[in-house]
Amino acid sequence: MAKTAKTTALANDDIGPETRLELYRLQVEIRDCEKRAHDLFLQNMIKGTSHLSLGQEAIAAGFGVAMKKGDKSFCTYRGHAHTLARGVPMEAMLGELMLRDIGLMRGKGGSMHLTSVEHGVMGSYAIIGAHLPIACGSAWRAQYLGDKDVSVCFFGDGTTNIGAFHEALNFAVIWKLPVVFVCENNLYMEYTPIHEVTAVHNPAGDRAGAYGLEKIVVDGNDADVVYRTATAAIEKARNGDGPSLIECLTYRHSGHSRADPGKYRPAGELEKWMEHDPLKIYKQRLSDFGIAERDALAIETESKRKVEVATELCKASPSAPEELLTTDVYADGGWAWRN
Amino acid sequence: MAELSYRDAVIRGISQEMERDKNVVFLGEDVAKAGGVFKATVGLYEKFGPLRVRDTPISEQAILGAAMGAAMTGLRPIAEIMFSDFIAVCFDYIANEMPKISYMTNGQIRCPLVIRTGNGAGVRFGAQHSQSVENWTMMIPGLKVVAPSSPVDVIGLMAAAIRDDNPVMFHEHKALYATKGEVPDGEIIDTLGTAKILRAGSDCTILALALMVPRALEAAEILAREHGINAEVVDVRSLVPLDTQTILGSVAKTGRLFTVEENPRLLGWGAEIASIVADEAFWDLDGPIVRITTPHIPLPAADHLEDLALPNAARIVDKIKRVMNG
User: Fold this and answer.
1) Which residues are CB-contacts of A221 (< 8 A; sequence separation ≥ 6)?
2) Cα of B142 to nearest chain A Cα, Å
3) Which of A237, B94, B139, B293 has the fewest beta carbons closer than 10 A?
4) Quick check: is B227 catalytic?
5) Could you read off the pLDDT of B217-273 as tens digits, one per residue?
6) pTM for the whole thing?
7) Is any Cβ of chain B less than 8 angstroms from the Cβ of A130?
């Protein structure tokens, strides 16, 4: 019986084993890499601050796989996952967190400003809400020049109470821009439960109607659901049918940032969500669809190896060189403001 | 050579660059069909069409954010913020986003755009529509800041700003829109970071910007005619980059420096220039560096009070005469 069920599911599968394994690989690699980032903090090898997405991997993976080369992503200071999901090498990401020369910006940007234009990662913005209008501008350029790329903009639930969120939504709709807004609702605005500071139940979804958009609220811990939703919204934008606003429900396993142990969370909440952990769900999904366990294990083993290699490369890389202090303030590469 | 208003020079400057480069696009509140509240964009919509000249909602953050996103990915937008006071509403883009993106990304991203804005007083709009705010933006690493005083400079500096690969604040003075000046035919392209000596003189240097330039010139004529003081008048034109060479050269020649600033006194651009001159040309000076500014107040709406606040030719003459004659 079980075998028949699996066969039927695979036959009707709109995603397919190859894409499923890719979704799993990305989630595993993001998880392992971020856990390593956490360890490196504890060893004082990563300085400054950092904002992990442990527990939110399905969103980055779902969109990462749905996006095509040339699509542009805009993310927040909680952007490690979205950066890796676009294919940025682990050592470039971790190296930037460690402020080494090997890092994406050679240590000049740090964990909150991860950018790789080559991979379509058009910046991580550390001021809440700033990048929603910026993503509109990127989408406007695509529309104006007839480029077919879509701009995807990730942000947290706290962003929905910023003015720029509302300005960007209205702007994107009236100009019918090829942009997809993705709210990662992890239930907390930094240290405060989002429902305590928000007038509506679904911070993004309930406001979509105010801009003439469909209310889309999905399980952000299920990579298949995210992938399907992402594919549909990106396709709609690419076809010239305008923007979408998607609220992905998820949960942040750790605190807001490195400094936050997350003790404000009610007892049992984390445990409840651990039962709905994206990786746990997805490993079961692979099995349900008859994908061999050895394929999942191979991904897990390879991910651990990648993290080790990346960590060693980063440790061996020198710090950002001193001459970078004054480069690229202006477009001529320098910092001169007077003659 | 034809006479053109400052207002029409804005239109010609933008037009010249939009004709040259299809990546130049323009957006702002009431800029397209209405032709701008100052009528400084009349005809652009008709000439370049709705895809390149676009009206936006009253959403200053969206205007600058969208301009930035477009600039980062290949266009060269011009964004209008109607009154310069309103840049406070979208200051995140001006202070944190546009000027830092090149540095933070280690040069991966450039942000070539122009923010045009109606700056300054003289038209009785009161405290929230009259400020001279170029100092707000001058202190931010990564931005360029320009403020022309004449129609020919408007065109040339606008073209230079649009062609520049950095974010540029372009402060048009709203009390100058109706003023006129000679403008040559054909393409005009100027250079950012160049001050202009508008009146040669030997006894003192007067540095001025935007609306204060015609007032400084008027003062210089009175000083020469009535007080035997031959003042050199330098139009600073661009605060970032700053043409310190021309400024220091003029001070070396005259030995005296006066700045005429519309901004409130505290931390005005003249303070920075005074500091540079004190550092680098102290031995050229024959007397104290003196700043003539608006007092440290918000601007009043009443016409006689606004007139009292802003430096004018009589007040410039009076101050210079008293300092020069000891």
Assistant:
1) A55, A58, A249, A250, A251, A276, A277, A278, A281
2) 5
3) B139
4) no
5) 999 999 999 999 999 999 999 999 999 999 999 999 999 999 999 999 999 999 999
6) 0.96
7) yes
